Amino acid sequence: MGINVNRLRVKTLLLVSVITSLSVSFGGNRVLNDLTISEIHFGEMVSLIGKNGAGKSTVLKQMTKLIRFDPHLITLAGKPLVLDEIGYVPQDHRITASISVVELLITTMHVGSSSLFTKADSAEKALVLLYSIGIIHLANKICTELSGGESQMVGLAQAVINKPKVLILDEPTSALDMSNQLKLLEYVKAYTRQYSAYVLMVVHDLNLAIQYSDKVAALHDGRLFTYGEPAHIIDEQLIKDLFSVKSRIIQLDDYPVVVVRS
C-alpha cells in the first residue's frame, strides 16, 4: 500500500508555528487533502477533533515520519526540527522492555549518548518526574506488567523526560479512567506553559478538548473544517456537521459542556 505525501510545511515565524498544504494518500485513497493549520503559538495546546477516519492521527504520524526522512520540511525557529525536540505518544502505547519504569526513563535520557556513564542525578530526575505526573507508585514496576492505562501514563513521562519543545499526543487519554485523564492533561497543560512548548494532540472527548485546549482544529473528510478557540467554535451545529449527532451546549462555570441528545 503506497503512501503519497504531496507536501508539508511546518514552520515558525517568530513565535507562530504553521502547518500548510498537507496532502496524504494511501493506495490511491486521499486521506488528507491540502490541510492547513495556522497560528499555533508557543505555549499552546491544540487539539484535533473529528470523526473516525477524518485524518487526525495521520497528521501526527506524517509529521514524525517526515522529521526522519525529509527533515528540511519541518522547522522550528528557522532550524530543522529533530526527533530530540519532539515527545511523541502514539495510540495504544505499549512498552516491550522488561525493565522497571525508572530504568526506562533513565535509558530514555541517554538515547544518543556515546558515554557509558549515566548523567548525574538521572534516577532522581526520573523519580521527580514520576512524582510530578502523579505516578511515583509505578517507579519500580516492570514495564511489561503495566496495564494499558499505566503504560499510557508512563509513555507521557518517557515523552517529556528530555524536555522537548514539541509534544505530539495521539489519543493520550483513550485508555485512562476519569481521574487519570485529568491528571495527564493537567500535567501536559502545566508542562506546555512552563517550557513554552507546542502541543498537538488528538482528543475524542469534546468536553476535554474544550477544557484543556487553547485551539481546536476540526477535521472533516481530510480537510480542515474550522479552527479556533474551542469555546467559540464548538457548538451544536459543528457537532451535527462533524458527527451527525444532536447535542446541547450547557454553560457550566467557565466552560461550555456538550450533552448528547437522543
UniProtKB/TrEMBL annotation:
InterPro entries: AAA+_ATPase (IPR003593), ABC_transporter-like_ATP-bd (IPR003439), ABC_transporter-like_CS (IPR017871), P-loop_NTPase (IPR027417). Residues 8-246 form the ABC transporter domain. Keywords: ATP-binding, Nucleotide-binding. Transmembrane segments: none annotated. One of its GO terms (molecular function) is ATP binding. It holds the Pfam family ABC_tran. The keyword ATP-binding applies. PANTHER family: ABC TRANSPORTER ATP-BINDING PROTEIN, HEMIN IMPORT ATP-BINDING PROTEIN HMUV. This is Hypothetical ATP-binding protein ofiron/siderophore ABC transporter.
